[in-house]
Amino acid sequence: MKRILVVDDExxxxxxxxxxxxxxxxxVLEAESSTETFQTLNREPIDLVIxxxxxxxxSGLDILQRMIREYPNTPxxxxxxxxxFQDDYKSWLADSYxxxxxxxxxxxxxxxxxxxxxxxTE
Amino acid sequence: xxxxxxxxxxxxxxxxxxxxxxGQGEEHLFDDLELRIREKCLSCDELRNDLGLYASEKDxxxxxxxxxxxxxxxxxxxxxxxxxxxxxxxxxxxxxxHLSTSLKLVLDVEKIxxxxxxxxxxxxxxxxxxxxxxxxxxxxxxxxxALGPRDYQEALSIWGEITDKKLxxxxxxxFSPQVFQKEGEKFRDILKAMDFDINENPFRxxxxxxxxxxxxxxxxxxxxxxxxxxxxxFWIVPLVSHLxxxxxxxxxxNFLTRKELSQEESKALDIFATEISLALERGLSYxxxxxxxxxxxxxxxxxxxxxxxxxxxxxxxxxxxxxFQLTHSFxxxxxxxxxxxxxMNKRISPDLPIxxxxxxxxxxxxxxxxxxKSFVNLTxxxxxxxxxxxxxxxxxxxxYQEKEKTGRRQGITFHLTLSEKIPQIYAxxxxxxxxxxxxxxxxxxxxxxxxxxxxxxxxxxxSVSVEIRDTGPxxxxxxxxxxxxPFFTTKSVGSGLGLYTSKEIIEKMGGDISVSCNRDKGCKxxxxxxxxxxx
Lengths: 122, 535
Prior knowledge:
The complex is a heterodimer. Chain A contains 4 helices and 5 strands, in the order βαβαβαββα. By secondary structure, chain A is of the alpha/beta class. Chain A has one domain: Rossmann fold (3-Layer(aba) Sandwich), CATH 3.40.50. Chain A has a 5-stranded parallel sheet, sandwiched between helices. The longest helix of chain A has 17 residues. Chain A is globular, with a radius of gyration of 13 Å. Chain B is α+β, with helices and mostly antiparallel strands. Chain B folds into 4 domains: 85 residues, no CATH class; 157 residues, GAF domain (Beta-Lactamase, 2-Layer Sandwich), CATH 3.30.450; 85 residues; 143 residues, 2-Layer Sandwich (Heat Shock Protein 90). Helix content of chain B is 55%, strand content 16%. Chain B is built from 17 helices and 15 strands. In chain B, the strands form 4 sheets. Chain B has a 6-stranded antiparallel sheet, sandwiched between helices. A 5-stranded mixed sheet of chain B has the order 10-12-13-15-14. A two-stranded antiparallel ribbon of chain B has the order 1-2. In chain B, a hairpin with a 2-residue loop joins β1 and β2. In chain B, α4 runs parallel beside α12, α12 runs antiparallel to α13 and α14 packs parallel to α15. Chain B is rod-shaped and about 175 Å long. The relative contact order of chain B is 0.05. The interface between A and B is large, with 32 and 39 residues.
């Protein structure tokens, strides 16, 4: 079973993602901050990270950059409430991105795609 | 023989036959003996002969009289010469006074030179046949204006006209745009050809002496001057500022009358030149001042345009920020509600009464989600899609001003070259600003150790372009391939490039962004946009 870490500071969004992903057969771990994210990544193997671009007091992009340095093999799906986040070139370093929606389809599709791509290359 | 019987001619009154020197209108001299002696006899050679005859007689008083008469004649001759010289000086003084008065309030360089040349060519004092003025930019002397006939035929007609119309000094000194244009046209070939190094002789010499010089046909001068003046001498008069800065020269000649200059006239030439120099210096300073004022005014207009643009961009940015915040704080809760409602809806049996309630929550929250989405799109269109006629130079200059400061701290020198006549384009200034800022940011980020960034605007064949060149490390080949692909997975790249978004925006405007890089020699990014007008 693939393990996905959901990084978002909104507990209800984490709950939503957990429900959606569990239903599709993934194991879900949660983190609400940069500290928690890297603690989890240090502690156990993670197959994919879903990362909110804007946490309350931190930038998801900073977490992304650190991840690229420290965990270059862990794919990241960025998610954001707004579409303009692509303007920031740093966001392009993620493996994929989604715009937050109540419809789970896009999220599930991107997670499958990224995992498949990574699985093929590894 | 002046002897009539026992009388001499100077003793006989009332007889017209005694003196052939009395002309028409002087008949009264036949009767007025005393006046006749004063006016005619004193210069009459026959009287001198008669006196000479008697002078040979021993102890005659006529010997003394002969001497007195000779002396008297010499003095008269001198007096005539003095008189003529005085007349010339008076005329010169008159011209100088008129010139000085006429130049007093003039600031226009054309007028000053015109009046100066008229003063040198008018009247019988200097009355030079021709005058040519050259002005200096500090390094070169270039033909500016010339006055006078080009050949004998023309001289006759010009001088005839001045006499016929009884044109006085005052009238001649009044600036005439027609004459200025006509004369300038007449001498156009020579004025255009005249271009000398200020340090070339004889000019170097003239400015060193600060006094006019006469150039003889055998003197060494630049070929052009020798070709023009041939075998006639000419005078070069320097025009210098009060700080001894060369302002120009006036070249004078008498190619038709071949008149030479006396020492006194030569001195007067310099006095005239001083008068013209003073006015010229004032005129040139005024011109310079006017140019500066104009530049300042232009800068002011530009500043105002910039300020307006800044205000607009700031307003848009702050509205953008607001929308951003609002979307974020609304969207998360709505998504959580709608998403969880979906989950619940899926999990409970549709037969349960609560299913209807959950459905309602789901439907309403999806409605909210959609409303929010269209609101975001609307504001985006409103603020970030609105187009207007704009000058790309303004946008570039604005970014330059912003980025130059950031760059300087990093040891980056900016060079800005703006095309002067660039057509306006119809575009969204905020988008354009964002794109260009993105591109320049890339260059800045690529040069953490400092370097140079050249920004240049151009216009050609119905399009305008902005070229950004940096001296950064360039882009590795493998990255180059993926430059315009969003989210490429080369994670080894320390920082990406904001090219994708910029390219997308510019392509939507009908333009293009091209990138070419040389490893270790930096990158060149060219943003091109078509010149379009509002439909």
